[in-house]
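Support request, priority: normal
Reporter: lab tech (M.K.)
Component: structure prediction queue

Hi team, I submitted a job for Amino acid/amide ABC transporter ATP-binding protein 1 (HAAT family) from Thioalbus denitrificans yesterday, and the status page still shows it as pending. I've pasted the exact input below so you can check whether something in the sequence is tripping the parser. The sequence length should be 270 residues. Please let me know if I need to resubmit or if it's stuck on your end.
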Amino acid sequence: MSDAAPLLEVNDVSLVFGGVRALTDINFSVDRGELFSIIGPNGAGKTSMLNCVSGRYSPNQGRILFQGRDVTRLRPNQRCQLGIGRTFQNLALFNHMTVLDNIMVGRHHLMRNNFLTGSLYWLTGAQREELDHRRAVEDIIDFLEISHIRKAVAGTLSYGLRKRVELARAVALKPDLILLDEPMAGMNLEEKEDMARYVIDLNEEWGMTVIMIEHDMGVVMDISHRVMVLDFGKKIADGLPEEVMRNEHVRTAYLGEEAAGDADPNERVA
Ligand SMILES: Nc1ncnc2c1ncn2[C@@H]1O[C@H](COP(=O)(O)OP(=O)(O)OP(=O)(O)O)[C@@H](O)[C@H]1O
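Reply from support: The job had stalled in the queue. We restarted it manually and it finished. Here are the results:
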């Protein structure tokens, strides 16, 4: 694959649930290094699109290529191993486990030693491997500023902190492509500012390509390189944030003229 080839290509993807057409003929691509956002009203098909990329849903039609390889029929864990990580709209943490253990779960597929070799702990290099993993996890904990809660049981934390731990677990997979489903939902302004900064740093410092679904237009327009708009399962626009904001179809179909006026680009959250 040449450097110029997209990291992710979605070709003619359609997805149907019974009588509901969740997605119709969706085409887009995301280049390595991009921070790409998907927006649209409730029920527009955003999460369905992300689920087709992560492998949770299998499209009825179309193909998904990751690093030039057709992954359309691969299971979620296979895509994970190829470098696609994600967070969920509704938190999916192990609430009874500590923050540290939740993040270690994220490292699982990178660990070569299993329970058999693990029983030969000192002989197989498992001890060294575990140390390496712990070090990598510590880097993530420092980056996301959750050192003070590392030993806390995940279920006891505030919503904002649990979202951050969930992000940490997804980052622990060291994905090339990270899919974020409404990372700022339910957060206060300060938490949103922090999360926006983490997303930018993941993209710029950690080199991860990001696809983000987010309803906060201020954040989306401020930090995205490109934005795609879905409406009733169809793509109605994609382009630079300012182009999308100017697009009349988007303004009427999604934002509405009034809301479009509200999303003042000078009033950005991050
Ligand atoms: N598992 C499912 N079974 C049946 N219908 C589904 C399923 N998942 C999604 N849908 C339907 O597909 C359509 C798109 O839903 P989706 O959740 O992808 O939209 P969305 O843009 O992410 O919405 P929101 O912003 O509310 O999260 C909706 O009509 C939804 O009811």
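The CA atoms of residues 93 and 101 lie 10 Å apart. The pocket of adenosine-5'-triphosphate is lined by residues 17, 20, 22, 40, 42-48, 89 (CB under 6 Å). Let us know if anything else looks off. Ticket resolved.
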